Amino acid sequence: MAIVAAMAVPHPPIILPEIGRGEEKKIAKTAAAYREVMRRAAELEPDTVVITSPHATMYSDYFHISPGKSARGDFSAFRCPEVEIEAEYDAAFSKALADACAEEDLPAGFLGEREPALDHGTMIPLYFLQPALKKPVKVVRIGLSGLSADVHYRLGRLIQDTAEKLGRRTVFIASGDLSHKLKEDGPYGFAKEGPVFDEAVTEDLGKADFLSLLTISPDLAEGAAECGLRSFWIMAGALDCQRVHAELLAHEGTFGVGYGVAYFTPEGEDDARDIGRQLIDAETQAIAKVREQEDAYVRLARESLETFARSHTMLPVPKDLPEDLQDRRAGCFVSIKKDGRLRGCIGTLAPGRRNLAEEIICNAVSAGMHDPRFPQVTPDELPKLVYDVDVLSEPKPIDSPKELDVKRYGVIVQNGERRGVLLPDLAGVDSVEQQIAIARRKGNIGAKEKVTLWRFEVTRHV
């Protein structure tokens, strides 16, 4: 058993007495739990500690493994330069892990280092661990990514494999805070998703319910403004096929940010906990259910992009479509999501094609291939994509934001040739002010510039 223990811990700088200057006493339970899990880890006399941190180098499509022999950092960013942390890297472990990732075609390695100094998401766990150690321990530091839950889990599994291959007694530390929006007077304010997210994650951690952890709603996580979920996903993979004893030692939200401390002890192999396979099966079943429920509008959008991605040809308009698609002309938007996150969205405010069917076909291809925010969709991605089609009413000018309703109306914000558009009833958009602000940003229109407002309704096909 190469992974001898794992833990999920927060990284609030204020927990250090040198920074908190008395404020740390308000999260005394978190500090006590932190010391306890590090005491347990030190008792195991590990050879290597793997730390995943959301504040290490991070890319949307790549896991960065810190290169080199060692690194140091301090808390100058928190007005405490005198507190310094040094770490010797386990270079052999890091290289073996990078090689294993390359063999498995998992995007991870040493490329693109931005800041060699240790980040506070790495330093705070080491601040608590190092004084408790009976012998020096080497560190592997890994950043997170914007990739899906299953890819994070696979990385964790390769960390487990590497530890076993090298015979390293390894402790895995998943550094990450929970929601940053637990209190109105907190540094990031309050969002209704915050407490819901914290309750769900702490329950999952306390029960080692990793499948539930891996399938948390992306909208919930985004609304909660969390930073630790992906660390926890990798940790779950590092405990793949292991019977696990889990303990949630603390959860506090004193300062408006959730701090959770959980400890996991592997207790032997358990093939029933092949959570990675269960996740893939769950996702496959979910997609199959979505496909069964597609109406003609959504099916047309999907088949249009699938045809173009595989053959680089446009789908001919099918002959068996409903009359509304063949005879009506209207603007429409096609939105594509992958793993619950936007993968592309392109649309037209007014009809530009002979009928709505052609409008959907063209916009679906554009959403997958020409949205400048994303790379082109590849054929390998097609089975995981989910589509929405919004058919628009004719936009009407309005005199005031009071005539808007974020659930009912989309908005067009226009200043000269610049124009921003936002659809109605979007997750995380809860007020007219927020809706207009987002539309302004999309149209590159300043917050104080005069604008003309338009509203429209949509018929949403999902």
UniProtKB/TrEMBL annotation:
InterPro entries linked to this entry: AMMECR1, AMMECR1_dom_sf, AMMECR1_domain, AMMECR1_N, AmmeMemoSam_A, Xdiol_dOase_suB
* The encoding gene: amrA
Q: What is the lineage of its organism?
A: Bacteria, Bacillati, Bacillota, Negativicutes, Selenomonadales
Q: Name one Pfam family in it.
A: LigB
Under what name is this protein listed?
AmmeMemoRadiSam system protein A
Residue ranges occupied by any AMMECR1 domain in the UniProt entry? 292-462
- Which SUPFAM superfamilies does the record associate with it? AMMECR1-like, LigB-like
Could you cite one Gene Ontology molecular function of this protein?
Answer: ferrous iron binding
Q: Which top-level group of life is the source organism from?
A: Bacteria
